[in-house]
Amino acid sequence: MVFEQGHLVGIVSPSDIGRAVLLHGLTVTGTAG
Q1: Alpha-carbon dihedral of residues 8, 13, 14, 16, nearest 10 degrees?
Q2: What's the pLDDT score for residue 11?
Q3: Is the full-model pTM beyond 0.85?
Q4: What is the 8-class DSSP label of residue 33?
Q5: How far is CA 17 from CA 2, 30, 31, 32, in A?
Q6: According to DSSP H, which parts of the chain are helical?
Q7: Digitized pLDDT (tens) for each residue of the chain, 33 residues in all
Q8: How far apart, in whole angstroms, are the C-alpha atoms of residue 31 and residue 29?
């Protein structure tokens, strides 16, 4: 269970961060451009 949870967290966290970074980058680009 611990391994599975850790694995899931490891996969979900980067995805969430990647989404936030992408959205932030798009917002900044839209605002700047």
Answers
A1: 120
A2: 55
A3: no
A4: -
A5: 22, 20, 21, 22
A6: 2-32
A7: 455 555 555 555 677 788 888 888 888 877 766
A8: 5
Distances in whole angstroms, Cα of residue 26 to Cα of each of 14, 18, 21: 18, 12, 8
Provide the token pair at 25: 């980058």
Burial 12-25 (b: 16+ CB within 10 A, else e): eeeeeeeeeeeeee
Q: Say how far apart CA 22 and CA 33 lie, in whole Å.
A: 16
Q: Extract the tokens encoding 28.
A: 């900044």
Output DSSP code: residue 1.
-
